[in-house]
Automatic annotation (TrEMBL):
This is PXMP4 protein. Pfam families: Tim17. GO terms for cellular component: peroxisomal membrane. It comes from Leucopsar rothschildi (Bali myna).
Length: 213
């Protein structure tokens, strides 16, 4: 038993020594990036899938849990693959050119995005839309910072909020099919289901009655 413990401790010391080797840093960063992508993807998707599934989807408990597990796995896997691909390509470009330049980041991420997130499915669609909204905000701030557009005299956020909500509700009412399914479900719950009730039970307690009254 003591021999096994000594072997484990020796293995841990060897692993820790390897992690300190600077020449392996790029490769080790790729591996840890894969790990962090998988963990972060699961942390983000699991609670979201749990809420959306139990709020909007029908079916047995087993089917709901299976749906949550599948969505969590898909998000976790895709993010892990993307980080692995991105960091690997970044390290390869830097090694080939002897230094890191901004275009390396763009190219590596483009290739990773194409390979990992190119499939048009609900999980990838949500991730891309999440990023797109933040990109637009980021580019707007960058344009002001670089002087491409003048600094607004007043905070433009109230106007942005008004236009976003006006546009999305117009699309929901008149071109619903253009919106993502989960957004359609959320808006149906908020703006249409709130117009239907039969008695106090489905007015305050439940959204919809489950009996046959």
């Amino acid at each position: 038993m003591a021999g096994a413990g000594d072997s484990i401790r020796a293995l841990l010391r060897a692993a820790n020594a390897l992690l300190q080797q600077r020449r392996y840093r790029a490769a080790l960063a790729v591996i840890k990036g894969f790990r962090n992508g998988a963990v972060y993807g699961a942390k983000i998707r699991a609670p979201h899938a749990l809420v959306m599934t139990f709020l909007f989807k029908s079916g047995s408990l087993r089917e709901k849990l299976k749906s949550i597990a599948q969505a969590t796995y898909a998000h976790s896997r895709n993010l892990a693959y993307f980080v692995f691909t991105y960091k690997g390509l970044l390290a390869a470009q830097s090694r080939l050119q002897g230094k890191k330049i901004p275009f390396h980041t763009f190219l590596a991420a483009c290739i990773g995005g194409w390979l990992v997130f190119g499939d048009n499915n609900p999980i990838n669609s949500q991730i891309i839309m999440y990023l797109l909204s933040r990109i637009l905000f980021g580019l707007s701030r960058l344009a002001v910072e670089k002087g491409y557009i003048p600094q607004p005299k007043q905070d433009p956020f109230p106007l942005v909020a008004a236009l976003v909500w006006g546009t999305v509700l117009w699309l929901f009412e008149y071109h619903r099919e253009t919106l993502q399914p989960s957004l359609q479900s959320s808006m149906t719950y908020l703006y249409e289901d709130s117009e239907v009730w039969h008695d106090l039970s489905d007015f305050l307690i439940y959204n919809k009655r489950t009996d046959s009254k």
